[in-house]
Amino acid sequence: MSKPDFTIERLGEMRIPSPVKLSTVTGDYVANYVEDDERVLYEIDVKADQRSAAFDGSELMEKAGPRPKIYFDPARTHAGIVTCGGLCPGINDVIRAIVMCLAYDYGVTKITGFRFGYRGLLSELAQEPMTLAPHVVKDIHKFGGTILGSSRGYGERTAEMVDTLVARGVDILFAIGGDGTQRGAMDICRHIRQRGLNISVIGVPKTIDNDLSYVQQSFGFQTSVCKAVDAVRAAHTEAVDAINGVGLVKVMGRQSGYIAAETTMAASDVNFVLVPEVPFELEGDNGFLAHMERRLERRQHAVVLVAEGAGQDLLTKTNRTDASGNIVLSDIGLFLKMHLTEHFRKRGIEINLKYIDPSYIIRGAPANAFDSVYCQRLGTNAVHAAMAGKTAMVISMMHNHLVHVPMALTVGRRNCIDPDGALWRDVLDATGQPKLMVNG
């Protein structure tokens, strides 16, 4: 497997002294600038007998932060913000951080919010953009969703979107969104490059599933886990207070089961967790239904947590895609509810099953304290990167350092749980479920 190239594209030389007044001296109690040659290792796992290695600059990640010199003249800079895709806790926090940093740190006064995703950059579909300023965004972090609205799709109409940016005189576009959003932003960058334009495009990666590559953790993920824990605890209460009570909870996770995995460990009430990365079978002595039956015989209650993308091989394919090009999944939650009910009915065993799907309650929640802090740092450092003339990159956290990552790397593959890794091992310890529920 070839090594990732972390080289960050930039529009030109940074020649303008930054209005952000920091220090170049250590120990003077004033925060320091980040120099452009400061780097973070991506691969940090080593064996004790491994020899030291020399690293090429392209193998190291650029540290995020304010540079002593910048590319854009703040007095002439026009920044735009767009939010795309599904909702997620913390979007408003990111918008607020970007606006506050642009206005207060750099003195940028022209900030435009494009409405309802990429369609806001298409003339025949767009609503009038919002003028953003500190007084507009000062309280938006207290609410879920996005003040700009969001939608899926339209990312392929690159030329028209660049025409809008040019017509409105936008110098910087901040694209807040997930895999599809960043693919669209990458195409916008390509078209900008072909036309020889000096427009920076900076991504802030948003995916509630926590599955973007080279992103240690997506914003909103911690809030999602906290909200999912509430649902699991409610399911557990219903289960233990009924005869053969079964609490079944479905959470987000199309291809990656991180929310289900971490919720399992946080709640400590889950007996079976089903994720897309680990196959399972319904029938047979080692199938899920047989293990559920044995669990109820022993303990008279059970809690099952399932990620939406789990067990899709057991369901009829929808053969449909959404506006972002994602395959529309069949509903694993309702599928399990039906099969559990039917299995125990045939065996003459009474169960009391409660099914909870908190997905939209979670998606629309405001960010918790952890995510609010994280969003503030992501938004602020996205601005620092943009003002320095960086482009075609996303702001990310890696090994607890804020870093710059090329967009092309974040959309190249999905982050998934490693069934052989430490996280899944700890999940199995928390549930006590079989390592694999398949026969043969």
For the structure shown, list the relevant keywords.
single chain, 440 residues, alpha/beta, 9-stranded mixed sheet, 4-stranded parallel sheet, 17 strands, 17% strand
Describe the protein.
With 440 residues, this protein is of the alpha/beta class. It has two domains: 9-43 and 56-218 and 365-410, 3-Layer(aba) Sandwich (Rossmann fold); 225-363 and 419-431, Rossmann fold. It is built from twelve helices and 17 strands. It has a nine-stranded mixed beta sheet, sandwiched between helices. Strands 12-13-11-14 form a four-stranded parallel beta sheet, with helices on both faces. Helix 7 links the parallel strand 12 (272-274) and strand 13. Helix 3 (158-167) crosses helix 4 (179-194) and helix 5 (221-240) packs across helix 6 (258-267).
What is the rounded distance between the termini? 32 Å
| Domains, number | 2
The outline comes out as elongated
What fraction of residues sit in β-strands? Answer: 15-25%
Unreliable segments (pLDDT under 50, ≥5 consecutive)? none
Largest sheet: 9 strands, mixed
How is the largest sheet built, in terms of strand order? 3-4-17-16-10-9-6-7-8
Helicity range = 25-40%
Order of SSEs: EEEEEEHEEHHEHEHEHEHEHEHHEEEHH
Radius of gyration, rounded?
24 Å
CATH topology of the largest domain: Rossmann fold
- SS elements, strand count: 17
Helix segment tally: 12
